[in-house]
Automatic annotation (TrEMBL), chain A:
Xref: InterPro entries: CheC-like_sf (IPR028976)
Name of the protein in question: Histidine kinase
Keywords linked to the UniProt accession: Chemotaxis, Kinase, Transferase
Residues spanning the membrane: none
Source superkingdom: Bacteria
GO MF: kinase activity
One GO process term, biological-process aspect: chemotaxis
Automatic annotation (TrEMBL), chain B:
Superkingdom in the source lineage: Bacteria
Domain Response regulatory: 4-119
Name under which the protein is recorded: Response regulator
PTM-bearing positions, type 4-aspartylphosphate: D54
Keywords from the UniProt entry: Phosphoprotein
UniProt key word Membrane: no
Species of origin: Thalassolituus pacificus
Biological process, per Gene Ontology: phosphorelay signal transduction system
SMART domains tied to this protein: REC
Keyword presence, Cell cycle: no
From TrEMBL, chain C:
Signal sequence residues: none
Keyword Electron transport assigned: no
Name assigned to this protein: diguanylate cyclase
Gene Ontology BP terms: regulation of DNA-templated transcription
Gene Ontology molecular function, alphabetical: diguanylate cyclase activity
EC numbers, comma separated: 2.7.7.65
PANTHER family reported for this sequence: DIGUANYLATE CYCLASE DGCM-RELATED (PTHR45138:SF9), REGULATORY COMPONENTS OF SENSORY TRANSDUCTION SYSTEM (PTHR45138)
């Protein structure tokens, strides 16, 4: 039995379990993307960390923090577990993405927004649903919100209200074989959700 | 005689899930490996007559394990159990000699289905 | 029996809710024919459910780009995933009037939409539901904020009295130019100048007249400037100009033109006619400057020299011989 305390924590078994659940969910997401674009998506080992909200940018250290990014976020909530999914897209990825998606229009801000929305609908939706199915939670998704186009990572992450101090962060760095497309999908769970999530996980671990 | 079954996955949770999905009536000795290198070692020691193999692993991934099995002509029937369910991934492992592909998350029903289909589990 | 009565009641309520809920609900089949059309859609489109049902979405609403919408909807059928569109992509899916036709400031209703899969009993997706949210207020206030931010940043860049570049913004430009000069062989030159004996203009004619002098001089400067020249009111009656790609000789020509322009100027304030002159100091970028501040000081020194040697003059900074 784990002792419930106000301090949120994550032990090795729990971390391993989150990693595996994410692995399955992102596999489902990648499968959809692969079928849509007719490519092979390289799947990494997801990173699971309990971090201070002020260190959020550390969670995406894999992303080149200097290059310009565009980002979309989408909230989700179910069974008292709340969080946000952030999709950060390297701006250099857009031209290859446009080609793969047969996007005919001009690749201006609006064109990029279209691509960003299409990919984020797919990746975020599949990932959240995949995790939800394994934990038997039905997540409702809010509307996606554009956090910024052509910004630096730090600027994108700065614009939050950061009420919570800790967050469970799951980072998935997607790349696509043979083309220059990379993006980061971050799943962030609020501090007060972590306890409930851990209970669900402990049930699976028993 | 009990069949030597190897579960090769870097996640202890996934290994446990897999072990639970093995049909009760099947007489087996279950062995575990935490990555591809350990997996290949166990197969060489004869612990992997039937192997449940994950793809995404550190050190040596599932594709590497399949290649080694083929190169060294090791006696192992490999069933890939993976979260990477892209059509390409399924094609690649079949070409590398995997017998079957099971999507994660694994459960008893799926395992029984595949084991029966390939005649590994008989008389059930 | 009682149970099924309750169920019947439930469905009845649900239908009522669907009809009255203040979001648009449209159910489409695989061919994009309308299968459900709720009260919100009826009210805003003027099309009754009886008229809409069975009709093709794209036939009825030509404002919906078919290719675009299908790109969002096909994954919902094929992958059983939800998709979303937001007003930033397209302001609306259906061209409806703003809900507040009188006090609202937008003429159309901005919309976000969710497209969700509807599973049939055999788990296949043969229908999708399009949910339409009215986000006009959010969109309008976001656009307000953006245009306000635009104005604010322009506001901060401008000196309010003279509408020249503000000192803060100009100093940033100077820093940038200083860095560029360190890497470049092209010359750049700084001109600082102030109006001679401005205190006595204020004293004789009043501060408001003084302000008018500053405004008129600024207006004259604007007309003398080239596009690449950056000029600001540095403070009080002091002005500074940054002349990019300009050497000393060209700067002298510029400065003399400014000096003569001011000298000739007859500034009217009420019944009064005011005349002014200016002294100017010129300093070209020197490799020996370590900061932009050094550059400013050099121009200031030249200006001081012009003042000392009789005013209404242009002086060029002479770096000390090594």
């Amino acid at each position: 039995m784990t002792v419930t305390s106000t301090e949120v924590s994550l032990n090795e078994d729990q971390r391993d379990c989150y990693q595996e659940l994410t692995n399955v969910a992102m596999g489902q997401a990648a499968d959809r993307l692969a079928r849509l674009l007719d490519v092979y998506v390289v799947l990494p080992i997801p990173k699971v960390n309990l971090i201070e909200s002020s260190d959020l940018h550390m969670a995406i250290q894999d992303a080149e923090t200097d290059s310009a990014m565009s980002a979309v976020c989408q909230g989700f909530i179910g069974s008292g577990i709340a969080g946000e999914a952030l999709l950060l897209f390297n701006d250099t990825s857009f031209s290859d993405l446009a080609a793969l998606m047969n996007y005919g229009g001009e690749l201006d801000r609006y064109g990029e927004l279209e691509l960003l929305m299409d990919v984020s609908s797919l990746l975020i939706g599949a990932c959240i649903q995949g995790i939800g199915e394994q934990l038997e939670i039905h997540f409702n998704q809010g509307h996606p919100v554009v956090l910024g186009q052509h910004c630096k990572v730090d600027d994108i992450l700065k614009s939050g209200n950061h009420q919570w101090t800790k967050t469970l962060a799951i980072e998935i760095h997607y790349t696509i074989e043979h083309v220059n497309i990379d993006c980061d999908l971050l799943l962030l769970f609020t501090e007060d959700s972590v306890g409930k999530l851990n209970n669900k996980i402990n049930y699976l671990l028993d | 005689m009990a069949t030597n079954v190897l579960i090769c996955d870097d996640s202890s949770f996934a290994r446990k899930q897999m072990a639970r999905a093995i049909p009760k009536e099947w007489e087996v000795d279950i062995h575990f490996a935490g990555d591809g290198v350990e997996g290949v070692q166990a197969i060489r020691e004869g612990k992997g007559e039937v192997v449940f193999l994950d793809l995404t692993m550190p050190n040596l991934d599932g594709y590497g394990v399949l290649e080694t099995i083929r190169k060294e002509d090791l006696p192992a029937m490999v069933i890939v159990v993976s979260g990477d369910i892209q059509p390409d991934a399924q094609d690649r492992v079949k070409k590398l000699g995997a017998m079957a592909f099971i999507k994660k998350p694994i459960d008893a029903e799926k395992a029984r289905e595949v084991l029966t289909e390939y005649g590994i589990l008989t008389g059930a | 029996m009682t149970d099924s009565n309750i169920e019947f009641g439930d469905i009845h309520w649900l239908m009522d809710i669907l009809q009255n809920i203040d979001v648009g609900l449209v159910v489409l089949d695989r061919q994009y024919n309308i299968q459900l059309w709720n009260g919100f859609m009826e009210s805003h489109s003027g099309l009754s459910p009886q008229k809409a049902k069975g009709e093709n979405l794209f036939d009825l609403f030509s404002e919906i780009p078919k290719d675009w919408f299908m790109k969002k909807a096909e994954p919902v059928y094929q992958l059983k995933t939800r998709t979303f569109t937001i007003w930033e992509q397209r302001p609306y899916l259906f061209r409806f009037k703003n809900y507040r036709p009188i006090t609202g400031r937008a003429s159309v209703m901005y919309q976000n939409t969710s497209i969700i899969p509807l599973e049939s009993i055999n788990r296949s997706v043969d229908h999708i539901c399009v949910i339409i949210y009215d986000v006009t207020d959010i969109a309008v206030s976001r656009e307000d904020v953006m245009s306000a931010n635009q104005t604010l940043s322009e506001f901060n860049r401008t000196d309010q009295l003279t509408e020249l570049t503000s000192r803060g913004y100009w100093l940033k430009e100077l820093d940038r130019e200083f860095l560029r000069c360190q890497r470049s062989v092209l010359p750049s030159t700084l001109v600082m100048f102030d109006l001679d004996d401005f205190r006595s203009i204020n004293g004789h004619h009043g501060h408001q007249a003084g302000d008018q002098v500053l405004r008129s001089v600024s207006e004259g400067l604007r007309q003398t400037l080239r596009q690449t020249d950056q000029i600001c009111r540095y403070g009080g009656e002091v002005f500074a100009a940054l002349l990019v790609d300009t050497d000393e000789d060209e700067a002298v020509i510029f400065a003399e033109r400014v000096r003569k322009m001011i000298e000739r100027m007859e500034i009217k304030y009420g019944q009064q006619s005011i005349r002014a002159t200016a002294s100017l100091g010129i300093a070209r970028y020197q490799k020996s400057f370590t900061t932009a501040q050094d550059w400013l000081q050099a121009a200031d020194k030249a200006l001081y020299h012009a003042k000392e040697s009789g005013r209404n003059k242009t002086t060029v900074f002479q770096p000390k011989a090594h």
